[in-house]
């Protein structure tokens, strides 16, 4: 299973540690960076500039925000369930970062090479709902509780067809190992045979990271800030960065499952560009697409959201699964 | 039919709005980067308030208090005084700009065109007390928006140097005791 040219490199203990630390720092760093990218891009798409004052093009805005968050009073409400209140943002951050462990960035870059990588990813994203629910319950706040209820229902129902949409890929490759899934795409990325699966996964991914148009758990206009209404300082920061890590995670998983991971063009000088570049390029474009969607689509009503999930997405995922199964069988 | 409509609704309209937003990538931003670049302020912009003088260079304000009573936030305060020629003027004139809402009602109420709002909004202060402007801060050496208007020339009131009936477009007073037509 593991002898795909990378096991020799991965076996060294030191390289593993370097890998883990580098990926952790890079993921969290680029999640913070994404907040700036998002604000700049939303600005551009709304015919304004976005943050462009701090540092060149405003990149240091991230740093300024971070300093602000760190200096804020880290307040735990007196009526809150203190232990759960503190644990919730930790879970939010932990599960998404842990899910990144199975993402195969490039040959030799990646934390673990699990043969159930895809299942691990699904399991970790499902655990994310606990962060939201715990945070909401522990806050002892009506808005937070409403947000938590919505989050639980939304994430559970979107989880269902998120898993189903991926089964098409699993059928085509016969494996849960993400590295092997990438290798199986050497002669054709899966977004062509699994187009419906890709779209469904993308929608579910946005819903999982609860971003607009699926940001009902937060819904500023109705619920103040939803489940993290009572959070401030770095605890809020962790929810916030966790959301962006989960955006990156969705983009990375899309890249791995449907856009050929680190595989790039093999002709001419393009073949000499390191594979990690192609991975980052594809993931980056997908992140931009998610930002674009955030900038253009409105938030649906809650019952519409549920109906869309169960009445449109779930049957579609089933049909996709059936068709794929028939094609694989024939 | 309904199914077709739903498909249209879910897919086409959403994709179209995403595309419409994307097409703004290359349009020019509407932002005016303010401190570097001054936005255009129309002459009628309602900003910092000034007290003007008439064309002869005398204070226009006659301390009638109309601006103070018309002010919805009660931020104007002044005290009437009278000079040796019988002309009224404000002894002090104070506007608390931390309460002013720049509604311009004072300007509309003023019979002498003395109080006027100008296109200037850069009045931020670190100390709140500095937002209270006194007469020496408000009074300018000009006529503002109405260059030729002088209240006493058209008011029909006698002041030093000009008796009744000597103003602009003013007929001499009628002699009520005369029988001539
Ligand atoms: S602009 Fe309005 S609020 Fe300000 S001083 Fe004049 S009347 Fe008062
Ligand atoms: S309304 Fe005009 S003339 Fe009267 S007190 Fe105010 S500024 Fe002076």
Distance between the termini of chain B: 91 Å
Number of helical segments of chain B? 5
User: Unreliable stretches of chain B, pLDDT < 50, 5 or more residues?
Assistant: none
Reported CATH architecture of the domain at 49-154 in chain B: 2-Layer Sandwich
Alpha carbon gyration radius of chain A: 20 Å
In short:
With 330 residues, chain A is mainly alpha-helical. Chain A has helices at residues 7-10, 13-45, 61-71, 82-99, 117-139, 142-173, 178-184, 195-208, 220-223, 233-258, 275-296, 302-329.
Describe this structure in words.
The complex is a heterodimer of chains A (330) and B (181). By secondary structure, chain A is mainly α. Chain A has helices spanning 7-10, 13-45, 61-71, 82-99, 117-139, 142-173, 178-184, 195-208, 220-223, 233-258, 275-296, 302-329. The model of chain A is unreliable at 1-5 (pLDDT under 50). Chain B has a domain at 49-154: Alpha-Beta Plaits (2-Layer Sandwich), CATH 3.30.70.3270. Chain B has five helices and five strands. Classes of the chains: A mainly alpha (330), B alpha+beta (181). Chains A and B meet through helix 2 and helix 11 of A and helix 1 of B. The complex binds iron/sulfur cluster (SF4) (2 copies). One iron/sulfur cluster (SF4) binds at residues 61-67, 78, 109-110, 112, 114-115 of chain B.
Task: Give me some keywords for this one.
heterodimer; A: 330 residues; mainly alpha; B: 181 residues; alpha+beta; Alpha-Beta Plaits; 3-stranded antiparallel β-sheet; two-stranded antiparallel sheet; 5 helices; binds iron/sulfur cluster
Helix-strand blueprint:
The complex is a heterodimer of chains A (330) and B (181).
Chain A: H1 7-10, H2 13-45, H3 61-71, H4 82-99, H5 117-139, H6 142-173, H7 178-184, H8 195-208, H9 220-223, H10 233-258, H11 275-296, H12 302-329
Helix pairs in contact in A: 2-10, 2-11, 3-10, 4-5, 4-10, 5-6, 6-8, 6-12, 8-10, 10-11
Chain B: H1 2-22, E1 49-51, H2 66-70, E2 76-82, E3 88-96, H3 105-109, E4 115-117, E5 132-133, H4 135-138, H5 151-154
Antiparallel strand pairs in B: 1-4, 2-3, 3-5
The complex binds iron/sulfur cluster (SF4) (2 copies).
């Amino acid at each position: 299973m593991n002898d795909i040219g990378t096991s020799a490199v991965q076996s060294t203990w030191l390289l593993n540690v370097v890998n883990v630390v580098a990926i952790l720092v890079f993921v969290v760093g680029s999640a913070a960076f994404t907040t700036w990218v998002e604000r700049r891009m939303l600005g551009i798409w709304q015919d304004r500039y976005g943050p462009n004052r701090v540092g060149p093009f405003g990149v240091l805005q991230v740093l300024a925000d971070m300093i602000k968050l760190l200096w804020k009073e880290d307040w735990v409400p007196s009526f809150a369930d203190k232990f759960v209140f503190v644990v919730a943002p930790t879970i939010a951050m932990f599960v998404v970062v842990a899910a990144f462990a199975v993402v195969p960035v490039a040959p030799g870059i990646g934390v673990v090479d699990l043969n159930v990588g895809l299942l691990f990813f699904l399991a970790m994203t499902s655990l994310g709902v606990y962060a939201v629910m715990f945070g909401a319950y522990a806050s002892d706040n009506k808005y937070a509780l409403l947000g938590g209820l919505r989050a639980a229902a939304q994430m559970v129902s979107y989880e269902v067809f998120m898993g189903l949409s991926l089964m098409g890929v699993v059928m085509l490759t016969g494996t849960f190992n993400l590295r092997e899934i990438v290798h199986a795409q050497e002669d054709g990325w899966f977004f062509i045979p699994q187009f419906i699966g890709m779209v469904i996964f993308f929608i579910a991914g946005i819903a999982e990271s609860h971003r607009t148009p699926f940001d009902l758990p937060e819904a500023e206009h109705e619920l103040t800030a939803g489940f993290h209404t009572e959070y401030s300082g770095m605890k809020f920061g962790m929810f916030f960065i966790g959301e962006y890590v989960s955006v990156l995670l969705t983009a990375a998983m899309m890249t791995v499952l449907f856009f050929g991971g680190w595989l790039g063009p093999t002709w001419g000088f393009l073949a000499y560009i390191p594979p990690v570049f192609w991975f980052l390029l594809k993931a980056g474009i997908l992140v931009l697409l998610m930002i674009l969607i955030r900038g253009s689509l409105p938030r649906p009503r809650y019952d519409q959201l549920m109906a869309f999930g169960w009445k449109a997405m779930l049957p579609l995922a089933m049909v996709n699964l059936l068709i794929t199964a028939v094609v694989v069988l024939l | 039919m309904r199914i077709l409509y739903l498909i249209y609704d879910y897919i086409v309209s959403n994709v179209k709005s995403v595309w419409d937003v994307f097409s703004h990538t290359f349009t020019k931003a509407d932002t005016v980067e303010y401190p570097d670049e001054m936005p255009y302020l129309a002459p009628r912009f309602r900003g910092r308030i000034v007290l003007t003088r008439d064309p002869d260079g005398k204070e226009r304000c006659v301390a009638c208090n109309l601006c103070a009573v018309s002010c919805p936030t009660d931020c104007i305060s002044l005290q009437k005084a009278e000079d040796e020629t019988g002309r009224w003027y404000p002894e002090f004139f104070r506007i608390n700009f931390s309460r002013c809402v720049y509604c311009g009602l004072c300007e509309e109420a003023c019979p002498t065109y003395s109080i006027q709002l100008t296109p200037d909004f850069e009045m931020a202060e670190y100390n709140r007390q500095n937002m209270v402007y006194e007469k020496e801060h408000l009074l300018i050496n000009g006529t503002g928006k109405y260059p030729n208007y002088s209240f006493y020339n058209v008011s029909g009131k006698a002041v030093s140097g000009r008796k009744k009936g000597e103003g602009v477009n003013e007929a001499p007073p009628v002699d009520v005791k005369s029988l001539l037509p």
